[in-house]
Amino acid sequence: MALFLSPLTARVFFSATSRQTAVLQDGETGKVIKEFDKIDSYKPVVALSPDGRYGLWFREREAFVWDLKSGEKIHTLKVHDDLVTSVAFSPDSRFALTGQESGRLKLWEVASGHHIRTFPTKDKGHAGGTARALAFSSDGQYVLCGTLDAKVRLWEVSTGKLIRVMEGKTEWLNVVALSPDGTRALAGGPDMTVKMWDCATGAILATFTGHSSDVYTLAFSADGRYALSGGADGVTKLYDIERKKEIASRVHIGERDWVVYTPDGRFDGTPEGIRRVHFVQGLETYPLEAFYEKFYTPNLWVRIFDEKPFQATEVHIAREITTPPLVQIISPGSGAVLDAERASLEVAIEDQGGGIDEIRLYQNGKLVSDLTRGIRIKETTGHQTTHRFDILLIPGKNEFSVVALNTNRTESKPAVVTVDFKRRSVSSASLYILAIGINKYKNAVYNLNFGRPDAEAFTRALENQGRGIFTQIVKREIYDERAIKPVIEQEMKNFIDTAGPEDVFAFFYAGHGVMSLDGAKEGSDFYLVTHDVTQLYGKSELLESKGISARQLKEWLKQIPAQKQVIILDACQAGGAVETFALRGAAEQKAIAQLARSTGTVILASSGSEQFASELPKLGHGLFTYALLQAIAGHADGGEPPDGKITIKEIEAYISD
């Protein structure tokens, strides 16, 4: 199938191979505007004029020009003695080009439908072969033709003169592309490679591999620095033309999920996309999420195009792979019915050569226990350790999942067991709220406008929605001068002592958030900036002593028994530190994402990098919190019709939109 998107009308023009026709569709609504005449062709080929006005497609010895606005056919381009096999428009939309089975090319004027020129069929005494792919240069002066004989020919449009024949492909060509300056040519086909030539000399400059099926699409960026290829394998690959290197790949899974990954192993994607992609080395396969801690890189696709590219990782995924531990739950057995609220869970972890660095236990998706860094076991394949966890059950089903990490921080496959606690559940869940909002900092340079109002409004909204659902609502609010580490720590300890497994815990923070330097004593980490932190950057020891680190927050969340937890961070940065933040923004996003994943907790976080990006006076709140309040008020109810219930996933989707 060939597909084009009109830049002016947001209409999609594509060939529908299964129906042997061409279709014009509204790109926003998906509504079919027009389905064109059915043809007796195995693979209809279409083209869309760059100005979005015309569509071009062929049937045997004829090509048709359609006015896409009116849906009327305006010209029939008759080839007579030859079969049409490819079509293309010139960049200014004035001319159409048809490629024939004989290898000849014909140039047509779109406005009149008149034939302008026929390009010769032979070069150096050899037949050109079927013209399978066409591409104009950005100035319209040259056209590139890929043929059945695996050659790429460059023609001068004004004269019909053959400029260059480029060879090196082993099979026929599906697609060609010409760089904006006309100096580079690309071609792809069923050999699963993309070749690049120097148009001036015909020399092969690079051969890009990596597709696992036919290459069907190619395109250069407007500045010629990058190129994209798309294959029948569903993968889109990005190349750096100057460096002659593949720099990223993107794969779409279904309608909503995707993963981007680079040759050195960095990756980004939707949670489901990451879960479904595996890294392959030899005969071994590893879930991509096993490398989350080291190689997950937020906004990876965007960052690749930064004018000042971020520093590449010092490690490469292929060199980092050491087999993660094997994990087995010895007892209780899956499906066991338990009648006591407290029980023991025994696990065995076997080293597979990479050591055992950490063991995590999750209950119904929430982290409830972890043995970290203090259980290092010498890296000897076959060495095994066992551990017994004390667990507190909730009525009904309890799913326990255990994962282990090796010394390279590669995660094992989880061992999972489900048990049933037969005590009948009594509806007595409580809601615990800890809200922190800071307008006034000890260093007035960092003062904000809406930190406190945001926290107050969130508390009211959650309290109002919670009435009638929870048997009690316990709220603790900490603002401005009281928002210091000892006070926050004491409130967290209170919740650890009083909350139960069936309760809900909500944590809200509105204030500054910052990443510590790599050289910090405790290692680089994300910090919530408390009232008495007087310098955001350059004094990591100040952050460590007075701020709230993601590491500390993780420990509190683990100890709070409430199985259902939601963390909301509306953390902005000082406007005077924009340049510094630009280098650390992705690190902060990764730290928050790792916190959510390692704790099994839902975390909603703002992404504004400056105070002015997140505080809008006319709203009376920060932009993130304003959207959150709208969601809680009912705007996030995504039911059809609305069901009167708002889930965390609905809130998250509403905020993202």
Topology, pairings included?
Blueprint: E1 3-5, E2 11-16, E3 21-26, E4 32-35, E5 46-48, E6 54-59, E7 62-67, E8 72-78, E9 84-89, E10 95-100, E11 105-109, E12 115-119, E13 122-123, E14 126-127, E15 131-136, E16 142-147, E17 152-156, E18 162-166, E19 175-178, E20 184-188, E21 194-198, E22 204-208, E23 215-220, E24 226-231, E25 235-240, E26 245-253, E27 257-261, E28 267-269, H1 271-276, E29 278-281, E30 284-287, H2 292-295, H3 300-304, H4 317-320, E31 326-331, E32 337-338, E33 342-350, E34 356-363, E35 366-377, E36 384-392, E37 396-405, E38 415-421, E39 430-437, H5 451-466, E40 472-479, H6 485-498, E41 504-515, E42 526-528, H7 540-546, E43 548-549, H8 550-559, E44 564-572, H9 578-599, E45 602-605, H10 611-614, E46 615-616, E47 621-622, H11 623-635, H12 648-656
Parallel strand pairs: 32-38, 39-40, 39-41, 41-44, 44-45
Antiparallel strand pairs: 1-2, 2-3, 3-4, 5-6, 6-7, 7-8, 9-10, 10-11, 11-12, 13-14, 15-16, 16-17, 17-18, 19-20, 20-21, 21-22, 23-24, 24-25, 25-26, 26-27, 27-28, 29-30, 31-33, 33-36, 34-35, 34-37, 37-38, 41-42, 42-43, 46-47
Helix pairs in contact: 5-11, 8-9, 11-12
Word description of this protein:
The structure is a single chain. With 657 residues, this protein is of the alpha+beta class. Helices cover 17% and strands 40% of the residues. Strands 39, 40, 41, 42, 43, 44 and 45 form a seven-stranded mixed beta sheet that branches. α5 (451-466) runs parallel beside α11 (623-635) and α8 (550-559) packs parallel to α9 (578-599). The longest helix is centred in the C-terminal third of the chain and has 22 residues, at 578-599. The model is unreliable at 15-19, 307-312, 574-584 and 608-613 (pLDDT under 50).
